[in-house]
Design brief:
This protein is of the alpha/beta class. It is built from four helices and four strands, in the order E-H-E-H-E-H-E-H. The radius of gyration is 13 Å and the shape is globular.
Length: 125
């Protein structure tokens, strides 16, 4: 995700999300991630997805941090340049903190990448 805004069936972050999508917008926003989001919404799965772009150096917004915290599941779309984005890596750190502290479920998806170099938590949960 690249920004602090939300677009979902919920109007505020006070309601829990079923799923939060984490992705590098440049890599997958208009391809895989948009299709995944549409499929989740069709199934009435309350999904948080960022729609705005951030400039390099922008900080994660409080709204996004809250959305991560109150989501049941984070789906991380690891694309070829995901790890090149400091924004994505900062978001990933927060997701993993929630996983460690609250047993927040994390589902990795490898989009057009080899997973042989991914950390074991990505592969085995």
């Amino acid at each position: 995700m690249d920004a602090g805004g939300a677009s979902s069936s919920a109007s505020s972050t006070s309601e829990k999300y079923d799923v939060l999508l984490s992705f590098r917008g440049e890599d997958t926003r208009n391809t895989f991630t948009s299709h995944l989001y549409a499929a989740l919404e069709r199934k009435k799965i309350k999904t948080y997805i960022d729609e705005k772009s951030l400039e390099r150096g922008d900080r994660i917004s409080p709204a996004l941090l809250e959305a991560i915290r109150i989501s049941k599941i984070s789906v991380i779309v690891f694309s070829k340049d995901y790890a090149l984005s400091s924004w994505c890596l900062n978001e990933l750190v927060h997701i993993l903190e929630c996983h460690r502290e609250n047993k927040h479920m994390v589902i990795p998806i490898f989009y057009d990448v080899e997973n042989k170099h991914m950390p074991s938590w990505c592969l085995h949960g």
